[in-house]
Amino acid sequence: MSQHNQKRGQGNLSPYDNKLLFQFLENQKKQIENEAAGLKIREKEVNNSHDYAKFALTKNVEDFKQYREYDYKKTKMKWIFTGLISFGIIGLIMFSLSSEHPEFAMEFLKILGTALVSGGGGYYYGKSQSQSDKKYEVEEVEEVD
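Given the sequence above, the corresponding structure tokens read:
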């Protein structure tokens, strides 16, 4: 028995050991090839995600620019509309004061003042109420076990 162990220690392997060693090396080779292919796939995923992130960032910048342009146009149209209405009201008041009907201008100013004070007051009261309601709003959440 000791001679058999000595032969193994000297490098003489049985045919079964050679097959096992060959199979082990083949498995290791295939495992390395699979890992290399996985790394290539991962590299492609990283490159694709980087390209997608750059594309998304570019689109976000364009969207934000378009939003700013739209917001500017919307604000500009509000001011133009407000200016036209204001000039119309001032023109109506000036015309009625210069003609022989100043009582029309006074009645118109009373109605306009009442509408502005009540409308503005109601608007700001409603806005302050909606903000204070949001402050104390609590959302109920279901527990999941």
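The chain has a mean pLDDT of 82. Try to locate this feature in the token string yourself.
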